[in-house]
């Protein structure tokens, strides 16, 4: 879902720029007093259609991007998710010139499409599964299964410290071989985990692992009435693979990964 862009220039008169966190149904209620950027109150802008925008006044005396801004953005959206309110989250940084612009530019012309996206998210939660290798266990597997790596590692351990420079490239080669072996295992193990968890979800979005030891990083869209079944499947994975893979389930989260980009 394409989000509005930050407006240029300061506010003039009563035109106070509005920061937009996301969109909810027009009949939604805020879960108590929700604090947004700079602890400013969050409110709903309605335009007479099926949807409403979550907004607060945009700070006028500084650029966005501080860690506190990111935390506030996430806090607002998490409060809706925790309250069980279906929400279409916007990425950090969306803003419009004023509340009138929110009504006319965001809501009035996009009400039908925004409503369709909310329908697709209704009764569903995003849960993120992160799996990481227990490195000592997996390195042991590699040494046991890959004779070339095991032999090279043994020889390098026997090199005296004063001769370390002579085997510099051998150490680089060892690191490359281990990385390649980890990649082969990651592809296999990640697919095993995904195949076991995916049937209990409606959709998934797989992310590129950030670190060598990361096996799988994937977000799932799960029906709320099947969440117990999904979590049970993840628990079973933990029991089956826990000696070599640590599995964490995070959420529910704002469903960023299941919102159309445009």
From TrEMBL:
Any one Gene Ontology BP term: gas vesicle organization
InterPro entries in the record:
GvpL/GvpF
Q: Which organism is it from?
A: Actinomadura bangladeshensis
Q: Name one Pfam family in it.
A: GvpL_GvpF
> Which GO terms of the cellular component aspect does the record hold?
gas vesicle
User: Is Lipoprotein there in the keyword field?
Assistant: no
Q: What is this protein called?
A: GvpL/GvpF family gas vesicle protein
Coiled-coil spans in chain: none
Compartments annotated for it: namely:
Gas vesicle
Keyword terms? Gas vesicle
For this protein, the record's PANTHER family field holds: PROTEIN GVPL 2
Report the main location listed first in the record: other
The similarity annotation says: Belongs to the gas vesicle GvpF/GvpL family.
């Amino acid at each position: 879902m394409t989000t509005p862009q930050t407006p240029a220039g300061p506010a003039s008169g009563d035109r106070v720029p509005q920061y937009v966190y996301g969109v909810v149904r027009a009949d939604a209620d805020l879960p108590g007093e929700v604090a947004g950027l700079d602890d400013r109150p969050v409110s709903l802008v309605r335009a007479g259609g099926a949807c409403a925008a979550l907004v607060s006044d945009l700070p006028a005396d500084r650029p966005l991007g501080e860690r506190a801004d990111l935390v506030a953005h996430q806090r607002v959206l998490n409060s809706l998710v925790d309250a069980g309110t279906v929400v279409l989250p916007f990425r950090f940084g969306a803003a419009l010139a004023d509340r009138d612009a929110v009504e006319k530019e965001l809501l009035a012309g996009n009400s039908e499409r925004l409503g369709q996206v909310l329908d697709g998210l209704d009764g569903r939660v995003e849960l993120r599964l992160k799996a990481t290798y227990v490195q000592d266990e997996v390195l042991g597997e590699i040494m046991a299964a890959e004779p070339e790596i095991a032999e090279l590692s043994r020889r390098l351990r026997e090199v005296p410290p004063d001769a370390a420079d002579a085997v510099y490239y051998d150490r680089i080669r060892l690191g490359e071989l281990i990385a390649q072996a980890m990649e082969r295992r990651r592809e296999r193990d990640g697919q095993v985990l995904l195949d076991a968890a995916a049937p209990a979800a409606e959709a998934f979005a797989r992310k590129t692992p950030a670190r060598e030891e990361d096996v799988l990083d994937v977000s799932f869209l799960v029906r709320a009435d099947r969440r117990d079944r999904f979590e049970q499947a993840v628990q079973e994975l933990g029991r089956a693979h826990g000696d070599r893979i640590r599995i964490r389930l995070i959420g529910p989260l704002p469903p960023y990964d299941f919102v159309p980009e445009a």
